[in-house]
Amino acid sequence: MKRTALYLLLLLSVALPSGAQAGLAQDLFDNASTLFKQNYYGWQETNRVTLVDRYRQQLAQQCEPAPDTCSYDTARKVLKAMFDEFRDEHTNVRDPEAAARLREIQNNLSVPRTGLKLVKRAQGLLVVGVQLGSPAAALGLQPGDLLLRVGGQTAGTDQPIDTAAFVHLERQNAPLEVVYQRRDQQLYATIQPAVMQARDLPQLSYLEPTQPQLTRDQSAPLSVSQQHKVALITLPSFLPADSAALFLDRVEQALHEGAGALIVDLRYNSGGRLDQCVAAASIFHRVVYQAKFQVGGWTFAGSQGEQALPLANLDHTPPIWTGPAAVLVGEDTASCAEVFAYYAHQNGVKIIGEHTKGVANSGINFFPLPDNGVLSLTTLRAYDEQGHALPGYITPDVVAPTDTLKLVQAGEDTTLQAALQVLEAAQPALPLATKPTP
After folding, report:
1. Which of 124, 205, 298, 364 has the fewest Cβ atoms nearer than 10 Å?
2. Rounded to whole angstroms, how far apart are CA atoms 276 and 308?
3. Is residue 175 part of a domain?
4. Is 282 within the bounds of a domain?
5. 317 in Cβ contact with 302 (< 8 Å)
6. Are residues 180 and 312 in the same domain?
7. Does residue 136 sit in the same domain as residue 232?
8. How far are the Cα atoms of 104, 225, 376, 424 from residue 94, in angstroms, in the given order?
9. Long-range CB contacts for residues 106-109, cutoff 8 Å, separation at least 24
10. Residue 172: which residues within 8 A CB-CB, separation 6 or more?
11. Burial track 39-61 (b if 16+ CB lie within 10 A, e otherwise)
12. Nearest 5 degrees, angle CA 362-CA 368-CA 370?
């Protein structure tokens, strides 16, 4: 029986010592630290026993003189400090609300939403996605808008309204008054959330030509966006169990609609299920990803993300996309999205953007905690088909950070423009994509 990729989704039940008599904070710390000491399997070599003992003492100091009534919040702060020092970006604690958001997406629940996908920036909350048919789309909000205030409070990094606070307000299903910037305008809207899917779906669009169409008597060469219809697929997450299938549907749609070049935008994709990113990356060539645990390992491969051993039994489906392509990455690209970018690059696809978050070479599991939150814990190391460890992060072929100010004030997506330039520079060697034959 096929066992799907647990690493990001499966909540394991583990027997751990009860700390009920010692108070909430001690109970939470003991559960999380025991899992951390026993089950961590990543690349950090810090002595975990010594680290836990030191932070246990810090917790005791913070909970003195009333340890029996010390709160979960206190333990979470101590655990956060401990994992920050440990410096494995995959390993952290998430509170009950963050755990609920994961379950909503994992199970594709229907929840109140505006349809906006946002990321924190110093200037505000940047709109990086608007779901079709959503309340935000109906009001005309679009990627590149910058939320400055929500419900009268300032939005952005280290502000009262960050991305988590915005989602919390959405779930209350009450009208949200927002102030946002688009170019040199400050605009206002009141968004009434509607019940819709918790997940964001991949979106397909087409890019406009990068220069005016040439007349018959002009001899200058055409740009790639004039020769070929350039498809842009924004892929927001690999967390849902059907994310690869939805992505493949968009790729096949682009082929049917005559696209000859492809750009996949992973700048705001924080990862998800291993079977899904492996299946999605297999549009360029069959991918083989080997996960090694403390004991044993699994192999994921092919356009269905199968787990199979030996390698000779793996999926040999021919490539789906054979034309020019580029992948956009950034500081928010993480985990499975980095894995997708790595394998795309191994098969000749250019990577454009910024240095990624840096967890491509490991995978995680979620463990339930006594406060109804979860421990995100690195439990595997990642290797390619030849047994070489994957890199920790993705370094782009062309460094082209997304300039938030230019995006908001001029509608200029610097990373996307760089990708088009790369495709145009390589166009003599890039064949037009063709629909694969059965």
Report:
1. 205
2. 15
3. yes
4. yes
5. yes
6. no
7. no
8. 15, 43, 7, 44
9. 106/9, 106/239, 106/240, 106/241, 108/197, 108/198, 108/199, 108/240, 109/197, 109/198
10. 112
11. bbbbeeeeebeebbeebbeebee
12. 140
* Cross-strand pairs, 224: none
Element (H, E) at 83: helix 72-86
Q: Say if residues 420 and 224 touch (Cβ distance below 8 Å).
A: yes
The pair of structure tokens assigned to 263 is 């750009």
Upper half-sphere CA count for residue 51 (Cβ side, 13 Å) = 20
Q: What's the pLDDT score for residue 318?
A: 80
CA distance 356 to 338: 7
Q: Quick one: average pLDDT of 2-17? A: 40
Domain, as residue range, for 237? 203-210+223-363+380-429
What the block records as the tokens of 27 is: 């109970």
Whether residues 146 and 293 share a domain: the answer is no
Q: Are residues 193 and 227 in the same domain?
A: no
pLDDT tens, residue by residue, 58-108: 999 999 989 889 999 999 999 999 999 999 999 999 999 999 999 999 888
Domain count, the chain: 2
Q: How many Cα atoms sit within 13 Å of 205 on the Cβ side?
A: 13
